[in-house]
């Protein structure tokens, strides 16, 4: 079966924008509970002739206990379990947040390969902003703009290296 890449991160960092940029044919929307739309979305994609499955997840939130947040977190956990490689997306304009650090801890515990993606780097002059993300404890952060598509080639090179 194909390698699985899961896109994970807190809400609003641009996970779905990145997913839509990378997605080829959308294969299914998985809903474990009726009425909740922020579930795992699967697509097939490929890079340099290497096909893989891609999963988009609802944003992870911590410190809030309501049912929807718990459900979203559960969906992300399932996606992480299924994944061979995780794309951990953060927001280069906002810097490292407490929720990013929570997500990072969860990903370190998973022992899965993680590619740290610093999104919303729309302008090259912002690239010094990448340095603070090293403190999340992963390999070299990769700056991308999901909006413009820049940097996603380097990101995918890093992903397929883990297959
Ligand atoms: P998600 O909640 O992580 O799935 O985030 P979305 O993909 O829904 O994006 C959240 C917001 O960030 C939207 O308004 C996007 O248009 C915006 N966004 C996503 N990627 C980029 C980017 O690379 N640059 C900029 N400037 N905005 C982006
Ligand atoms: Mg989304």
Automatic annotation (TrEMBL):
Annotated ranges, domain EngA-type G: 3-163
Superkingdom of source: Bacteria
GO BP, one annotated term: ribosome biogenesis
GO MF terms held by the record: GTP binding; ribosome binding
The UniProt record lists the keyword Repeat: yes
Repeat is among the record's keywords: yes
Positions bound to GTP 1: 9-16, 56-60, 119-122
Keywords: GTP-binding, Nucleotide-binding, Repeat, Ribosome biogenesis
Family membership: Belongs to the TRAFAC class TrmE-Era-EngA-EngB-Septin-like GTPase superfamily. EngA (Der) GTPase family.
Assembly and binders: Associates with the 50S ribosomal subunit.
Function per UniProt: GTPase that plays an essential role in the late steps of ribosome biogenesis.
Record protein name field: GTPase Der
Organism per entry: Marinithermofilum abyssi
The organism's taxonomic lineage, starting at the top: Bacteria, Bacillati, Bacillota, Bacilli, Bacillales
Gene: der
Whole-protein coverage range: 2 to 164 of 438
